[in-house]
From TrEMBL:
Names of the cofactor(s): Mg(2+)
Catalysed reactions, semicolon-separated: a myo-inositol phosphate + H2O = myo-inositol + phosphate
Keywords assigned: Hydrolase, Magnesium, Metal-binding
Family: Belongs to the inositol monophosphatase superfamily.
UniProt protein name: Inositol-1-monophosphatase
UniProt GO molecular function: inositol monophosphate 1-phosphatase activity; metal ion binding
Organism of provenance: Limnohabitans planktonicus II-D5
Keyword Magnesium part of the UniProt annotation: yes
A Pfam family per the record: Inositol_P
GO process terms (BP): inositol metabolic process; phosphatidylinositol phosphate biosynthetic process; signal transduction
Length: 319
């Protein structure tokens, strides 16, 4: 670790690498890992807990007066009233991990009086370390990061996450994905929001959007993106997004185009936009219900004529 790094960032790196060592050892025999389910399709393992413990122990040993907000233990450790709060996801991408799918990471951020000032995302499978200090830039290992230079949405790869919890509005997400997929070079769903944001910062992808995220999913990645020259906010483009459970990030020109596409799906959208989305989703619900009762209809027939219309719109789109 470099002596030029902020001392708090150095401690976070130490914590992330210790957690990564636990994760890598467990990955050698992932079938032996004990797994429990928090809710439908939302898993936690003994490795999540062990990783979180070593991170918290490392941070509080160095800074005993700081607070902790962690995915598994919440605010039960440290001083919850402190100006300095560490926001921790000990294993982002648990579902990937328990299947042996090597896309997961450790995410640690330091929030100081409400602003994210330090960030570490560590990918133990590739030994990739993403770091940022507010005002000092973002880095992957020793390389300075900059977001993608692409300005045409149709040339871009966008990452996202699919809804998986009970009560998620799946049909609305289908509409969102349809809007994005037909106007880009591709949509990706790797399965770790923290890494998704790190990849936007690195320019590996051009943008990212997802709903239902918690602060520990996006805190560290948000600083990486902004320090790499990108923008991050909610679907309407407002920067105060951390607690809002909707996240949109990208290179500046791409971010603006994505806000134009996805803003109407935001819970902060105008009443007119919300009504239009509800009408479209209700129509999709009816179509899917009708198709489910028609044994002669293949799954591909569930795509409405809106898709053909959107395809035509794409030909005329100014990007």
């Amino acid at each position: 670790m470099s002596s030029n790094l902020h001392p708090m960032l150095n401690v976070a790196i130490k914590a992330a690498r210790a957690a990564g060592a636990i994760i890598n050892r467990a990955a050698l025999d992932v079938e032996a890992v004990r797994i429990s389910q928090k809710q439908v399709n939302d898993f936690v393992t003994e490795i999540d807990h062990a990783s979180e413990k070593v991170i918290i122990d490392t941070l509080l040993t160095a800074y005993p007066d700081h607070g902790i907000l962690a995915e598994e233990s919440g605010s039960t450790h440290g001083n919850p009233l402190a100006d300095h709060i560490w926001i921790i996801d000990p294993l982002d991408g648990t579902t990937n991990f328990i299947h042996g799918f090597p896309v997961y990471c450790v995410s640690i951020a330091l929030q100081v009086r409400g602003k994210i000032e330090q960030a570490v995302i560590y990918d133990p499978t590739r030994n990739d370390l993403f770091t940022a200090t507010k005002g000092r830039g973002a880095f992957m290992n020793d390389r300075r990061l900059r977001v993608s230079k692409r300005i045409r949405l149709q040339e871009c790869i966008i990452s996202t996450g699919f809804p998986f919890r009970k009560g998620d509005n799946f049909n609305q997400y289908l509409r969102m994905m349809g809007d994005v997929m037909q106007r880009t070079a591709g949509l990706r769903r790797p399965g770790s929001a923290a890494l998704d944001l790190a990849y936007v910062a690195a320019g590996f992808t051009d943008g990212f959007f997802e709903t239902g995220l918690s602060p520990w999913d996006v805190a560290a990645g948000s600083l990486l993106v902004t320090e790499a020259g990108g923008l991050i906010g909610n679907f309407t483009g407002e920067s105060d997004f951390l607690e809002q459970k909707e996240c949109l990030a990208g290179a500046p020109r791409i971010y603006g185009q994505l806000v134009g596409l996805l803003g109407k799906y935001s819970k902060f959208a105008s009443a007119g936009d919300k009504a239009a989305v509800r009408t479209a989703v209700e129509r999709l619900n009816r179509e899917r219900t009708d198709d489910s009762h028609n044994p002669d209809t293949e799954s591909t027939d569930t795509v409405s004529d809106d898709s053909a219309q959107a395809s035509d719109e794409r030909k005329d789109a100014p990007f």
